[in-house]
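hi! just following up on the protien thing from before. the input was this:
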Amino acid sequence: LVAQLRPKEVVAVDLATRRTLWRRDLPKAPPGGIDGIEAATIHSTSKGPRTLVLVTGTSLATYDLATGRPLWARPNTYVEQGALPIIGNTLWVSGDAGSEGRNLRTGRIEWTNPAASSTDYATVFAGSFVGLGHGKVFALSSRNGKTLWSHEVGPHGTSGGNQYGAALRGRLFVRGISKGMALDAAGKPLWQQPAETMIGQPLWADGNAFVTYDGGRFVRYVPGTEAPLPTSPEARRQEAARLVARFEKLDAAGIKRLQALGTDAFAPMFAEFLRTTRSYDADKDGESYRIYSKYHDLAQTMDRIVDEEHVPELVAALKKAKPDGSEKPFLMGWLGKVGKPDEIVPLFLKELETKTPGFEMYESNTFAARSYIIRSDHPLAVRFMIDKLRDPAADPVMRKEAYWRLAGTGGEAGLRAVLAQRHRRETLKPLAERMDLGYVGKSNRDETITKLVAERTDPKSGRTWSLLRCGILGSSGDLWLAEKVGDAYRNPSFTGVTLDGISRWNKTGLPEPKFAGKTAKELAAGAWFTVLVGNDALTKDADGDGLTDFIEARLGTDPAKADTDGDGDRDEIDPWPNVAAQPKTEAERVLAAAFEARYWGEEYPGVAIMSEKFAPFEMPGRTGPVLFENDHRDFAGTLSRHYEQGVAMLGISDPGEKADARDAIVWNADRSEATVRISTYYGGLNGTGYKAVVCKFGDDWIVVAMDMEFVS
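and the predicted 3d structure came back as:
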């Protein structure tokens, strides 16, 4: 028995005696990799000793099974589905540079094929190595590595997704990104299907039938062809009723057949959809997940069938639906696609007038209604959105959507409403005001900007001091010292250290910052009072700009200049402290309009950085400072070293990732409309990307649409 019983170690045990035969350390995983066995096989030949092959992380290693002696190793190896294909004494190894055949015992390279890489599936089939990767399924000769046959099943270079491969009783089944197929032993396609209707992954075959798994069901298939769709309306309706009756047993091809019946399938499908949603809401049979899955599948299928002729049935069902009925958001979504505005806008406004969207799921009534109303140019919808924009107490989601769209949907009235709410360049509030100290110790809200860590009264002076945690300078673990007078916290001073240390993204090995030889954790553990209270270094402000030298060191501003960029605003209140305000080019005005709209309505005053490779310029919109860092690739800048701790990393780009943000603008033919993409990242899996459409109105550039393109 060969097993991994401890991290980073493999052990061989004699099962007869239960004696440990040998132990070996596993190859070290690369940074960010996993220390563990991902694939393993024992290979025997009729003449030679047995060989153990292991893959850990992305490294392949071989061992003599009897002694555990390492034979050879290779980094950067792809192994899909635990596959380690071996023919004779040749092990097929796939990596970044294609494929190679290696002698199992010596590791000697016997052949290479740079064009073949099996990133998604690899096996031995009909005496050859067979792989799936980069949009192709292919076979390689085990003797010389030459490609024996190859078929395209997806775009070049693609991997992942729902691709699979399976070899069963002389047949190879493959699904790529674009299509699937079954092949015989010579690599000749027996049949092909589009990927979306390809069968699930085959698991078993007996020469006539085979069984597949589609992620939730086992499905048995036999050879044959589907009967053609009937042509007469009555026969088509009967076929639709037959398919709907066995809807849960349909595979992807059956679903497509049902959709191909079009409007003839609407009546039975709609009736089944309503019955299923109401059954789910009642949950009488205790099978809520199965019913939930079914009505979602029905709704997805109906998306291709619903047409404007079905509006009366949809409206009637919507009026009968309970306020929280599961069918409502789907009915509203379909009406939004095929209904007439005069009929559906009043229905949708009624939904929004009685509820506040707030946080909502995609499958909610308010989401369906809001998604339609915010894009509508119907007079009632425009009036509703203008009212929301003008009301500071209105739902912030609706206000922001109104600001993003009314210039495009609301005519002159909408344009005036947007211009009235537009942010111009404004200086920032003083730093202590941005810390929101009035809520310290009085609220357990997660969104409280400043939190209390510890508090202590000096027995000699009677003064009370507090250790605070506040992230407005880029790290949520930043420690501050403030004096507590009554219920108020006065004169907060940044310590220059953070409980979060240096970001894991930093590539230069920066040491953890310390204050008077103490880390933030040591200060928070109790040393803070002795080390911080009365220490003049905390309050030193060499240039008198309102920012202590510790704060200037974090922001990257000049501690010897009260106005780093020389624009007339001292650094504490300058919204862009290291770039002076100046007249903008047309392209810069477009970018500034997109930037201002993207961050309109966001109140958190934390610091952000931009590192685009262009001459910097100011863009209004944020309530906290924005600073340029020349390059954050190593995450070694004074702010980027705290990435993933609270600092926002902002970017402007187009799909081609132009070097200069001015080149990232996509213009229309007469340059009256521009498209810009803006990303905001707080960490590796904490970011969003928006696409802004900006149009010219007179001398002004104004956003007319802003849509999220990705969330990470």
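Confidence is low (pLDDT under 50) at residues 655-659.
The first helix runs from residue 233 to 245.
cheers
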